[in-house]
Write a structure and sequence with these properties.
The complex is a heterodimer of chains A (534) and B (163). Chain A is elongated, with a radius of gyration of 28 Å. With 534 residues, chain A is of the alpha/beta class. In chain A, 52% of the residues lie in helices and 6% in strands. Chain A folds into two domains: 287 residues, Cytochrome Bc1 Complex, Chain C (Up-down Bundle), CATH 1.20.810; 215 residues, no CATH class. The radius of gyration of chain B is 27 Å and the shape is elongated. Classes of the chains: A alpha/beta (534), B alpha+beta (163).
């Protein structure tokens, strides 16, 4: 077996393990959080939110902080003890929000890895995440340095030993921390500059770059989650306030220290191994993470293609594209429309959300070939219609259901295992609502089940959200009013997709259709509008 | 039920954050141990002797480059050895820094040692000669638990300093 095959198997195993872990966590959290408020759907946004808490609490600390060898420790002690009701809480919030950011970053990385959303055209956000990690750690480490207690002494000496290993310094930096005489106030000014201005500025730029290729990036968690998290951090700060250790004394070596394992987990390795090996480990791991999108290399799907004869420049595809891959440009073919859609094939992930947004993507066209204004070359709207017709021919009896399933969803695997015919779509957002209309109005089936991915697990960010909004007539192109959307079920709605199996969901939907049939009336209502976050 | 699950989720998150920010405590040094910090930054002697240029050689140089003495830039590596109660705790040959090997050689080493009275020896060779030390010092020190004893080389006094 080749090494590439081994690599692919290992990758698949790791991603599956990650997905299983997240699925378990998601199911547990679903008992208390709605889809919209689930922390797992807002890990990146939560990290940014924690950075806001760190910034605001940090401004308060800065007002009272003295940047000198003798003043640093005393000013932090003043904040912690004399001014515990504000300064102490702010200090604790500052620490705990910084630590919480590491937890959410770690979960965010594992989540994106296990969902396979970091490869091919989406490498950019993944790769630009690594410098953010490299910035956030020095930010935390310099923060501990400024307190100038025993932990700071340990951090200063060990950091200097690490920096000494870089072959650009001739004199040993660590030698500066051998006596109080050799330590200067200017050193604290430098640390304060790095911690307060230098690194945060780079961090803001890094976050901007990280979400640069995403359309409508999710940078703010829902208010309920923000409120809950802030209360959680405040209670932790009051119950277990952050405290300093003994004042740094360079004539003595600290014997035991309370280490912040979120930021300083690599530091004990400097003593156990050597600075060189720690650098090798950190740089090796970073290189592995940065190269992960190409390990092993994957084949890109063909980008969406615009057919100008059918494109009227309505810009719905550009609005719905989650990756900024479509821009509107002046018309180039002389038609009487102002704009035309242009696809950037370097950014297009071939998710098909643009096809679902295109009003010309309708299966009712019979006089001309089904060629929408924008389409996926390898999974076209015409192929989709053909697949629907083929699947419908296999259905018989009452309560016939056509199931649409995302090609990578667990639901699809489960349905196929049970022998249920499904119509594959790359992402549920690829399905224009007119296709559900087509199934029901042509009596190809009695119901339509959109068995997407599990809630919050959409690989293409907005697929399930857009599909749901189109079916509930909140987003263009809307489902026509003549269609009874009680006969269309969105499988990712929480009560089904997070806790139950898709087969149970199918059975429940069939029973629901049966009940509707028994009542001999179709309720002209809308389906739920709960949004699934990306 | 909903609020109970939320409470448990937030509590678990806070517990993880609060706990791992200070626990488990990390033991840097056993209670009966101390640190000796060996920190020397010293330029070895030049590899070659300075040589006075002949008049003919000076004439060949541009007027502004006519320096009467030509000294080679390269310096010797320095050899450092540290012993406690006769046991060698550190022994290294340290090359000079710089692209032309003309800078200082530097050592920074933290060594753990049991607290108590010790016979300490530090020696340094900077002349490239094979045997012996150009500078050395022997002293008996009472080292306290947790103490950080620094051994430095004073360039002005050309002697080792224990502080």
């Amino acid at each position: 077996m080749s090494s590439a095959t081994h690599g692919a198997k290992l990758l698949s195993f790791l991603q599956k393990a990650g997905r299983s872990g997240f699925s378990l966590l998601r199911r547990s959290l679903a008992l208390g959080f709605s889809n919209q408020d689930s922390p797992l759907n807002h890990l990146g946004a939560l990290t940014i939110y924690f950075c806001w808490i760190v910034l605001i609490s940090g401004i308060w600390l800065l007002i009272f902080f003295r940047t000198s060898v003798s003043g640093a420790f005393e000013s932090v002690e003043y904040l912690t003890r004399e001014q515990w009701y504000v300064g102490g809480i702010m200090r604790s919030l500052h620490r705990y929000a910084s630590d919480a950011a590491i937890v959410t970053i770690l979960l965010h990385v594992i989540n994106e890895f296990s969902r396979d959303t970091y490869r091919l055209k989406r490498w950019f956000s993944w790769v630009t995440g690594m410098p953010l990690i490299w910035m956030i750690f020095p930010l935390g480490i310099t923060g501990y340095w400024l307190v100038w207690d025993e932990l700071a002494q340990y951090v200063a000496i060990t950091s200097a030993e690490l920096l000494d290993r870089i072959p650009v310094f001739t004199d040993s930096m660590a030698a500066n921390f051998l006596s109080d005489v050799s330590l200067s106030d200017r050193f604290f000014t430098l640390m304060a500059f790095l911690h307060l201005i230098g690194l945060p500025l780079f961090l803001v730029f890094g976050i901007w770059l990280h979400v640069f290729r995403l359309s409508k990036p999710n940078i703010n968690p829902p208010r309920a989650l923000m409120g809950g998290t802030l209360i959680c951090m405040l209670v932790l700060s009051l119950v277990f306030p952050a405290d300093s250790q003994s004042k740094a004394d360079l004539a003595m070596a600290p014997q035991t220290i309370e280490l912040d394992w979120f930021y300083l987990h690599a530091y004990p390795l400097v003593q156990m191994w050597s600075p060189g090996w720690v650098w090798a480990l950190l740089l090796g791991l970073s290189a592995l993470v940065v190269l992960a999108p190409w390990l092993p290399p994957a084949k890109a799907l063909p980008a969406a293609k615009v057919d100008l004869d059918n494109c009227n420049g309505c810009r719905r595809c550009a609005d719905d594209c989650p990756f900024e891959a479509i821009r509107m440009a002046p018309r180039s073919d002389g038609q009487a429309y102002e704009l035309e859609a242009v696809v950037d094939s370097d950014l297009c992930t071939s998710c098909g959300l643009c096809v679902g947004a295109c009003p010309t993507s309708t299966p009712f066209r019979s006089r001309s070939a089904l060629i929408p204004g924008i389409d996926l070359p390898d999974r076209s709207a015409a192929m989709l219609r053909e697949s629907i017709n083929r699947t419908a021919n296999k259905l018989s009896g009452e309560n016939r259901i056509i199931v649409f399933a995302c090609s990578r969803s667990d639901a699809r695997t489960e349905l196929l295992k049970a022998g249920q015919a499904v119509v594959d779509v790359r992402c549920m957002g690829q399905l224009p609502p007119s296709f559900a209309d087509y199934v029901l109005s042509r009596d190809l089936a009695d119901g339509v089940l959109l068995a997407g991915c599990r809630s919050g697990d959409c690989k293409y960010r907005y697929g399930m959200r857009w599909a749901e909004q189109r079916i509930s007539r909140q987003r263009d192109p809307r489902l026509r009013k003549r269609v009874n959307n009680q006969r269309i079920a969105c499988g990712w709605q929480q009560h089904w997709s997070t806790r139950g199996s898709v087969l149970k969901m199918l059975g429940a939907f069939q029973a629901d259709l049966e009940a509707q049939r028994a009542e001999a009336r179709w309720r002209p209502d809308t389906v739920g509008t709960e949004e699934s976050a990306s | 039920m909903k609020y109970l699950v939320q409470f448990i989720a937030y509590f678990a998150f806070a517990a993880i954050v609060g706990l791992l920010s200070v626990w488990p405590r990390y033991q840097l040094l056993a209670p009966d141990q101390a640190i000796i910090s060996l920190t020397i930054s010293h330029a070895g002697q030049r590899v070659g002797e300075c040589r006075r240029l002949t008049q003919e050689e000076l004439n060949e140089l541009a007027p502004n480059m006519r320096k009467p003495v030509d000294c080679p830039r390269e310096r010797h590596s320095i050899g450092v050895e540290f012993r406690a109660d006769g046991a060698v705790l550190y022994q290294e040959i340290l090359p000079p820094s710089g692209l032309w090997a003309d800078g200082k050689a530097t050592v920074y080493q933290r060594l753990q040692i049991d607290a108590g009275s010790h016979n300490l020896f530090i020696g340094m060779n900077d002349s490239g000669s094979g045997g012996g030390f150009d500078y050395d010092m022997t002293t008996v020190r009472d080292i306290l638990p947790g103490q950080n004893l620094v051994i430095d080389f004073d360039e002005l006094q050309q002697a080792f300093v224990f502080r």
